[in-house]
Amino acid sequence: MWKASIMALIPLFLLLLPSLAFSQDLGVPLSWRDFSNSRLRAERISIAKDAINSILPQLDTSNAQFHGIGYWQAGNVFSAMANFDHLAGTKTYQTQVTNGLKTAFKLYPISISLGTTTMMPCGGQLQLTTVTGRTRTKAYCQWPLQLGNMSRSSGYNVSVHHLSSPIYQSVISTADASSGKQPKKSFAIAKTCDGESMAGGVFWRPVSTDSSINSITTGLYTTLSAFLAETTKDAKYTNAAILSAQWIQKLQINAKGIVLDGVDGSKCTRSPASWLFTYNSGKYIEGLSVLKDVTGDIIWKALMTNITAAAVKSSAWEGSNGIITEGASPKSNNDGVGFKAIFIRGLDEVSARSGDNSALQILIHSYNDVQYNALLQLAANGTSYSSDWKGPPQAFTTWGQLAALDVMVTAINTNSP
Ligand SMILES: *[C@@H]1O[C@H](CO)[C@@H](O)[C@H](O)[C@H]1NC(C)=O
Ligand SMILES: *[C@@H]1O[C@H](CO)[C@@H](O)[C@H](O)[C@H]1NC(C)=O
Ligand SMILES: *[C@@H]1O[C@H](CO)[C@@H](O)[C@H](O)[C@H]1NC(C)=O
Ligand SMILES: *[C@@H]1O[C@H](CO)[C@@H](O)[C@H](O)[C@H]1NC(C)=O
């Protein structure tokens, strides 16, 4: 979790490690509330566009931020806009997204600029110790992956992020894991935790003394590397994606198939087992969906399918009706409020890449429809939505609107006709 970065001192041996035998039931639970919808594509496009247009008045074009939410959250808004254009086949938000990125990257020159849009690096470059700094560093990790495949939207230009970029300096290489030394860290790193190599884990803050590694940063890294592998066909990105995917697979999945939060890269202590957040599983399955296509390796497809099935049914963030309750916060913004949007975006990518598994696609569209119908029927006030998806409706908040966008955009894709 972004804010709660300090690993609780829970020794690893207290944790039941995964057998990876969690079940893969792709059936739609009949207890889910209203899991289908008959709105036609044109209406779904219109609903998504109205939702995006309702947040745009909050955009400050001078700094590419949105009033009421933070920097990394803003990356999620631009991402939803780009995905809208991709899925609707339009260029509606091309100018705003492109200008927003240019502005953000100019103001925060840590970015590496190649082409008309740029993927942000994260970690490894700024020595930031303040809370603001940490938030901003997270943002750098978050932005590129929120943007997804910009080149899929005609007129958008995707740039390439090289292995020499800062995010790639925050990973533990195989050699680092063998030597117990990571070049950007001043302490001895754990070579193994619970008998598994720490190679592939990614530190989430660039401070030389900070030893925290987490699943979201490693999942972002996996996803970024897999997308780059797909785009460039360069094996170094494929290998980077595989190593980090393996790290999560071996160390960060609980017995129910849900991705855990963090591990201390020095002492192997862990985040509490109860720290289960949608976006950790969501970003990982997004990366796995690309990795399975890049490698053709059925292990990644099986793992993606299993985690997806487990995550959409997890009691960690929903009751039997299926409506996600995580991050509901009618009165104030918080880091967790938009995690569920990142989860939904990951599910969308899994669905888009699972044309050979109709049961999985049905499960995903049913799950998104549960959220879609809840937002439209229980949480909507005109075209704005509460961050509490089971309702009640309330006056517009930027964070509530942000959280809803990916559901609206995903519904364009996962439903038919
Ligand atoms: C996925 O789940 C199936 C069914 O429970 C299991 O046989 C398989 O080993 C799992 N695969 C992975 C990679 O988790
Ligand atoms: C995208 O960016 C690259 C790198 O700057 C450039 O060579 C290319 O012409 C751009 N493509 C488009 C369609 O703008
Ligand atoms: C983006 O999509 C295009 C067209 O579908 C594909 O050729 C390209 O490999 C994809 N790139 C990434 C980074 O996903
Ligand atoms: C709906 O939004 C309007 C305008 O923001 C606000 O005045 C009104 O109180 C909201 N309705 C509910 C039920 O919260």
UniProtKB/TrEMBL annotation:
Where does the source fall among the domains of life? Eukaryota
Question: Any idea which UniProt keywords this protein has?
Answer: Signal
Which Gene3D superfamilies does the UniProt record give? 1.50.10.20
Q: Which GO terms describe its biological process?
A: carbohydrate metabolic process
Q: Which residues form the signal peptide?
A: 1-23
Query: PANTHER family, per this entry?
Result: MEIOTICALLY UP-REGULATED GENE 191 PROTEIN
Can you say what this protein is called? Endo-1,6-alpha-mannosidase
Q: Which organism is it from?
A: Rhodocollybia butyracea
Q: What is the lineage of its organism?
A: Eukaryota, Fungi, Dikarya, Basidiomycota, Agaricomycotina
